Amino acid sequence: MKRFYILLSTIIGVAATLCLTSVWNDSPIVDEIPHIGAGYSYVVSGDYRFNPEHPPLAKDLAGLALLPLDLNQAALSMPLQGNWPSDVHGQWNLGRTLIYLTGNDAIKVVHAAKMPMLLFFIISALIVFTWSRKLYGNWQAILATFLFCLSPTIIAHSRFVTTDIAALFGVLLSSYFFIKYIEKPSRSHMWLSAITFGIALLTKFSTFLLVPYFLIVALVWGLLHKQTPQALSRTILIMALGLIVIVGPVYQYHVHNYPPALQKADTKIIFQNSVHPAITNLIVNTADKPVLRPFAQYFLGLTMVFQRNAGGNRTYFLGELYNHGLKSYFPIVYFLKEPLPFWGLVLMLIIAGAYKFKNSKLKVKSWIKNNFQESALLIWLVIYWYFSITANVNIGIRHLIPVYGFTYILVAGQIGRV
User: Fold this and answer.
1) Last residue of some domain: 55, 80, 115?
2) Structural domain of residue 356, as residue ranges?
3) pTM for this entry
4) Which of 87, 220, 354, 358 has its CA 20 to 30 A from that of 188?
């Protein structure tokens, strides 16, 4: 067993080294600037007015990493912070000012902010290994970890102060404990599932898709074992606990120095052109209410994401500019971004799977029951791919990162079987 842990450590160590050395002398990418500035403002001032369209976890870690640098905090009190929602560039101005314009060492700031992001990558790799080993065995677990850690897309985005690898981490962590809870209900599994679900919601708003995912997985389990009401009620319970026990307190900390009247005013400005007034008015009206304020701030960000998706985003794709999403975008981008050896493995598995299915008398229901965890992983891939393909925002392969962990687990497992 020792050799597997040596291999695991080597693979993760090589990938982490590639992440660091390949980005060390680079400038921050555009999205890192507001994330670094906003994260620092959260941990220093406890005020969540900047960058509410992304949950705080990744930004908090970046901000915490900056505390030992004893930075000049003048950026936090400059006029750009005042009525920022009316200025769509306010959060970028905060980041630029903090990093470049107030005498801080920009290189140290960027390096320090990036370092904690590797935690999301390392923990995700360990979950991939652990889950693959549980399903298939040691060598398949090593293969899944190898494919995951040395994916060019994973290496590229593990280096950035963004929410994409954090979302992958959240999906892997929460799904692992949720499926364990569904299969073997217990008090400890319930709390682990609730806590990790709450943590996932703090990584990126796309992880809200875990809500329909968990409900569908619970429904499938319930139908297979004639326990549908119990499975669904347990799932609703852990989601409610995750929101109340994790999301609520974390957001409460982030708004404790955010004046209630200003939170409501800012929320109202952000939603002034809302296409869903019934929902946005409810969020505005709860933004200054005790107890409800943190949840209003969370759903403010979630609703901003939905509105952005409805409005679309300008995309340059295959030689043309588009202001709307294309159903062909993500399949083509995913195909181009994955290495050819990966597609060779997938083609081999498709051929082997088709041959096996043709000569098998096993019914679908029996297969799902006998391979429930694999079925659950496939359900997530179907849900996330469906929402990605039908989305109206096409701005990069990074939006597909939450499917990478499950994909490599399944591919490695089937290679082992073949």
Assistant:
1) 115
2) 315-417
3) 0.93
4) 220
